[in-house]
Amino acid sequence: MWEIIRSTTPEIVWAGIKYTIPIAVISFAIGLVIAAITALIRISKPRGNGLVKGIWYLGKLIFSFYVWLFRSTPLLVQLFIVFFGLPNIGIQFNAWTAGIITFSLNTGAYASETIRGAISSLPSSQWEAAYSLGMTYSQVLFLIIFPQALRVALPPLSNSFIGLVKDTSLASSITILEMFMVSQQIASHNYQPLLMYSIVAAVYAVFCTILTILQHLLEKRANRYEVAEGE
């Protein structure tokens, strides 16, 4: 048993470093961009004439439907639709692209609610005070609101990233050679499924523990001024 652990663990860890972490990082980065755009559109207020308002309402409806769709359906089903289903209508992606698209859209839907909630939690008096100083909407948003909202949203967003790292195990279902799929392949040769799945579970636990420690350090840094005031 110890010989199997010694010989297979490096291979699983390497698959995590080469595939699992990059998929998670790329998907999360793209997902955050999608989330920020979605949240801003959903909390913004229409301005201008009737045509502009009509376009705004249509955009808000589309993004609201997107959030509802991806939060209401299983991630595994989404992966299957993008990788196995879309080729039936002439849209085909390789496994990596399909995985990143799906993970990004799924992350964006959930993270948009986190960002929207963080922005909405800030008192409206901050907007009013900034406007009274002659600041534009964009200046208020990016210089005052966003930095504070980021601090509020940091813990749930960090949890979302850790969850995404674990969710990448579903990528094996569309032939991406990440950690879980490597453990399956090894188990099919040495006939030790319990041992191999326990090893990959332990590797996931180590990765997530490291990310949790980094999360706590980021939160501590983000709240350093608040702690100083409390003292």
Automatic annotation (TrEMBL):
Keyword Cell inner membrane: no
InterPro entries xref list: AA_ABC_transptr_permease_3TM, ArtM/GltK/GlnP/TcyL/YhdX-like, MetI-like, MetI-like_sf
UniProt protein name: Amino acid ABC transporter permease
Topological relation to the membrane, as annotated: Multi-pass membrane protein
Transmembrane regions listed in the UniProt entry: 20-41, 194-214
Keyword Acyltransferase included in the entry's annotation: no
Keywords from the named record: Amino-acid transport, Cell membrane, Membrane, Transmembrane, Transmembrane helix, Transport
Every ABC transmembrane type-1 domain range: 17-215
Subcellular location: Cell membrane
Family that this chain belongs to: Belongs to the binding-protein-dependent transport system permease family.
